[in-house]
Amino acid sequence: MNYEQAMEYIHAVQWAGHKPGLTRTRTLLAALGDPHKQLRFVHVAGTNGKGSTAAMMASCLQAAGYRVGLYTSPFINRFNERIQVNGVQIPDEELVRLVEQVKPAADTMEDVPTEFEIITALGMLYFAQQKCEIVVLEVGLGGTLDSTNVIDAPECAVITALGMDHVKELGPTLGDIAAAKAGIIKEGCPVVSYGGVPEADAVIRRVAAEKHAELTEVDFSRLKYEGGSLDAVEFDFDGLTDVHLPLIGSYQPRNAALAVTALRVMRAHGWNIPESAIRTGLETVSWPGRFELLRHAPAFLLDGSHNAHGMRATVQSLKDRFPGQKFVFLVSIMADKDVDQMLSLLAPLAVRFVTVTAHTPRAMPAEVLAEHIRAYGCRAEAADSIEAGVARAVELGGEGPVCALGTLYFSGDVRKAFAELVKG
């Protein structure tokens, strides 16, 4: 088997017709010797900021001298980004070897595992073989029934900012969504929550109390930040002063405050995480595709906000970093998202829009999206391909800023097309 065949196998099994639940993941892991039972975890759930928070915590734990696994989704450029050890993506040949190990076990199962369940098994196997001392594990969707939730009590359960997303799977209210996320809270494990949404906070507090899990909510009154530049955001949080965070979204200091709070809770439970390691980890963290500047002048930004909650944060960041400026937006949005709410947030900052169709069946066709945008009285044109869309957005942008956003699923293609265009 080569890398392409391994990828083909992983992507072959879709969710369609599968009932949500943990049975398939448990069966598959049992056939592989239960590698997850050899590992310790930080489990991260939430609507927005999961990946950034997970990346920050992994970076800080690595700076503290631990061998750290990081499991995230989706990927930006290559699948291998989803499974990392100490900041290094799983090598192609290792991935092939693991698929060759997992496939026979999965093939004998009556109820075939889904793509995400297979990837979770690959990750667990790799982290165990790599003898990771701690794994930062990002939930795929929800919490309770997410295949990452097969783990025993984590060293810390972390719940990031909550908002309305995936309502079809998780339920129509913030309370329902919080209940699904709170499914990662296990008996007696420390829990750190971003908080700030009363309806959701009440659910998380109740579940934590039921599980005898010590709950810490982030004290954002201790967070101070001045804004920042196009290179770093500077902030102080609860005694940690003048941190230069290279993730420049205005919302990132809040994610950092969550990560710092969680790391300090872990320290109180015996993990050796000095303040100096927290600072180093935050100042050296890398997390592509989240309010990332691909070019300073004229500015070309790439952002992964893919729901109304995330879009609100991105729009605030655009106003903070580019005061008074208007943008050419290159957009692709999934058809199952709250498209109109997302567009109503972007419209006041737009000079015009270029729409493209991301390479995923869930993407709204570019022409349909352009029509939606025109309904807001904005100028929009559909491009035939992501390459053509990037070229057109840059042309229309002239000396002004361009921002590509709406889904993480087109980030890799946008980055590649932009690099080719600039080189060309």
Short description:
By secondary structure, this protein is of the alpha/beta class. It contains 15 helices and 17 strands.
Structural summary, described in words:
- This protein has 424 residues and is an alpha/beta fold.
- 40% of the residues lie in helices and 16% in strands.
- It contains 15 helices and 17 strands.
- An eight-stranded mixed beta sheet has the order 4-3-2-5-1-6-7-8, sandwiched between helices. Strands 12-13-17-14-15-16 form a six-stranded mixed beta sheet, with helices on both faces. A three-stranded antiparallel beta sheet has the order 9-10-11, with helices on one face.
- Helix 1 crosses helix 4 (92-107), helix 7 (174-181) packs parallel to helix 8 and helix 11 (308-321) packs parallel to helix 12.
- The longest helix is centred in the middle third of the chain and has 17 residues, at 252-268.
- The protein starts with a helix and ends with a helix.
List the keywords.
six-stranded mixed sheet; nucleotide-binding; Mur_ligase_C; 424 residues; alpha/beta; eight-stranded mixed sheet; metal-binding; lyase activity; Folylpolyglutamate_synth_CS
Total strands: the figure is 17
Percent of residues in helices comes to: 40-55%
Derived from helix and strand composition plus strand pairing, the structural class reads: alpha/beta
Radius of gyration: 21 Å
Q: Can you tell me the overall shape?
A: globular
- How do the strands of the widest beta sheet line up side by side? 4-3-2-5-1-6-7-8
User: Total helix count?
Assistant: 15
Give average pLDDT, whole number: 94
The first-to-last residue Cα distance is 36 Å
Largest sheet: 8 strands, mixed
- Estimated share of beta-strand residues: 15-25%
Low-pLDDT segments? none
